[in-house]
Amino acid sequence: MQKYNVSKSSYFYAIGLSYKKADADIRGHFSLSEEGKLALLNQAKENNIESLVVTSTCNRTEIYGFAQHPFQLIKLLCDNTRGTVEEFQEVAYIYKNKEAISHMFRVGSGLDSQILGDFEIISQLKISAKLSRKHGLLNPFSERLINAVIQASKRIKNETEISSGATSVSFASVQYIFNEVEDITNKNILLFGTGKIGRNTCENLVKHTKNEHITLINRTKTKAEQIAGKFNLLVKDYSNLQEEITDSDILIVATGAQRPTIDKHIIQSNKPLLILDLSIPKNVDENVLELEGVKLVHLDHLSQITDRTLEARKQHIPSAEAIIEEVKEEFNGWLETRKFAPTIKALKHKLNDFATAELDTQRKKISDFNESQAEIISNNIIQKITNHFAHHLKDDDVSTDESLELIKKVFQLEPSTKNV
């Protein structure tokens, strides 16, 4: 990346782990809370990392950033989570430069999602970029790349049917409940936690089950009340959690806590209870399975549910990939211009020096010298010359490196050490 003059560091990396190789437990070890993200960004600044974007969802935790070596980014991740370097090495991926750029495009465009065409990750990338910008950790390269990925994602959503039909983890949850539970309309359902997946699941439950026995509990009651008001649902205090679980037939947990919030000791009922854990890290301790009548299903299992809708989406992968290549080509074109920008800038300075010297000479020779007119003419000529060189350097049929060296030699330009 250094040849593109986009960073003081040598390489752009994407490091992380996802559902593809890391199970829910391992992903939980590397999950970052909001406080964890802030701590990581602050540590990155202290370590003189120039640009860094970090995302952490139920399916993946990733860092995109500039570094001399990927271990600088891996250390940031391990220092701010419960994950270890050894665990990371077993399940993680490291992409560099062009591969890292391609990876971000695939992730942001829903092609790398656990459920194909799920575009939730793009909103996460936007939020992460905004947070990095706020902390002074988003350089022009990263900002331009994020915007290009957003553009590709938007086009894929609008120009293909890769996200057609209701297929997401939250919808899969409702599908599973329909398949496993009889007389769903009359069952007592408790939603504990109001994170994004929890809210979407709640909306799908209301829409598809016509159930009027759905109760919401959240540690912060006002958040639960905001969602409940939208769907006309019942809200109970966090202190009522145990008794509400006792009355429930279905418990959906989406709290986003870093440790289990539900275990066997809080369940006092002997009747059948289906528990869906939609959280990373896992929020339900597996010791609940020691209780008779309890069935526990985790997010990863729900994500494996496929139907005709999901199969139909696969037909649109080639169209999505073509859009990515098109947007990526535009981004690479911008990168190429960054490659020769310092030389063009130095050339313009050199031509300005020539013009200034010549204007001084003519000013002394000509008594009625029209300074403003001469400056306009010289500036226009300089602009035309630099534009001509810039167009030449953009030409695919010429060797950019050789042309740059020739320009520097002819005009005796100092090698630029400043990155643009």
Automatic annotation (TrEMBL):
Catalytic positions are 58
UniProt superkingdom: Bacteria
Molecular function terms from GO: glutamyl-tRNA reductase activity; NADP binding
Q: Where does NADP(+) bind?
A: 193-198
Q: What class of enzyme is it?
A: oxidoreductase
Write down the chemical reaction(s) this protein catalyses: (S)-4-amino-5-oxopentanoate + tRNA(Glu) + NADP(+) = L-glutamyl-tRNA(Glu) + NADPH + H(+)
What InterPro entries does the record point to? Answer: 4pyrrol_synth_GluRdtase (IPR000343), 4pyrrol_synth_GluRdtase_dimer (IPR015896), 4pyrrol_synth_GluRdtase_N (IPR015895), GluRdtase_CS (IPR018214), GluRdtase_dimer_dom_sf (IPR036453), GluRdtase_N_sf (IPR036343), NAD(P)-bd_dom_sf (IPR036291), Shikm_DH/Glu-tRNA_Rdtase (IPR006151)
Per the UniProt record, which EC number(s) apply here?
1.2.1.70
Claim: Manganese is one of the keywords in the record: no
Going by the UniProt record, its keywords in alphabetical order are:
NADP, Oxidoreductase, Porphyrin biosynthesis
Q: Which residues form the Tetrapyrrole biosynthesis glutamyl-tRNA reductase dimerisation domain?
A: 320-413
The pathway noted for it is:
Porphyrin-containing compound metabolism; protoporphyrin-IX biosynthesis; 5-aminolevulinate from L-glutamyl-tRNA(Glu): step 1/2
Domain called Quinate/shikimate 5-dehydrogenase/glutamyl-tRNA reductase: residue spans? 180-305
Q: Carries keyword tRNA processing? A: no
UniProt subunit comment: Homodimer.
* Described function: Catalyzes the NADPH-dependent reduction of glutamyl-tRNA(Glu) to glutamate 1-semialdehyde (GSA).
Q: What's this protein's family per the entry?
A: Belongs to the glutamyl-tRNA reductase family.
**Under which name does UniProt file this protein?**
Glutamyl-tRNA reductase
